[in-house]
Amino acid sequence: MRRRVLAPRVAVLRRFAAAGLALLIGSAGAFAQSGSPNPQDQSKQPAANAADANKDNQRKSDEFVEAAQAINGPGGNPECVWLGRRVVRLMWRDDLDTAFRHLDLYDRFGCPGGHVQAAFRCLTRFGGQIDPKVAETLDSRIHVCWINPGAQPQAAAAANPAPAPATAGNATPAPAASPSPAPGAAPAPPAK
Fold first, then answer.
1. Which residues make Cβ contacts (< 8 Å) with residue 109, sequence separation at least 6?
2. Tens of pLDDT along 147-184?
3. Residue 149: how many CB atoms within 10 A of its CB?
């Protein structure tokens, strides 16, 4: 009688053991396939990323050195260059709240506020040449305008070689000279 009571328990345990064994074998195959296909390629990738990071850091430090040489005074200090260019970039992207917070920090370092204004004015002149999909064009234009706020876009400079005469205050510019008549044409005599 004892044997009959144990037989159903053993049968149930055998079914659970068989199902557990199938599950274990299936999951072992899944764990084996989840590994990376080429571990050798991953070892080359960090070296390339490190080289790119070193090259980027060198470029940034060269830009700071160039700004320090080109700009006299505090506008050429690395902290002023970094914060000022960041403020101009944020203003260009219409993130004015963040730009004003950075501008407060810029002022605390004793950096010249007029330089940010002049650099942003310069950047608006380059507006048509900045590709919004390529971040490097915006960054390079901001750097050019930070170094030389009087920079002009190449296409506009070629189209307008002679600048317009400057006026002071509300004065109207002088009218352009009237064209001279053709050399072969004689004025008509006055009517009597």
1. 74, 77, 79, 80, 83
2. 988 888 775 444 444 444 444 444 444 444 444 444 44
3. 19
At CA 173, angle to CA 168 and CA 176, rounded to 5? 150
- Is the Cβ–Cβ distance between 149 and 124 less than 8 Å? no
Q: Which amino acid is at 75?
A: G
Side chain identity, residue 160: N
Q: What b/e string do you get for 84-107 counting C-beta neighbours within 10 Å, with b at 16 or more?
A: bbbbbbbbbeeeeeebeebbeebe
pLDDT in tens, 84-143: 999 999 999 999 999 999 999 999 999 898 999 999 999 988 887 888 788 788 888 898
Q: What is the dihedral of CA 109, 113, 115, 116, to 10 degrees?
A: 100
Q: What's 162's DSSP letter?
A: S
Residue at token pair 């190449």: 154
* Token couple for 80: 């002023």
- Output 129-137 pairs: Cβ under 8 A, ≥24 positions apart: 129/153, 129/155
Instruction: Judge whether 142 and 89 are in contact, CB under 8 Å.
Output: yes
Q: Under a CB-based contact definition with an 8 Å cutoff, are residues 37 and 43 in contact?
A: no
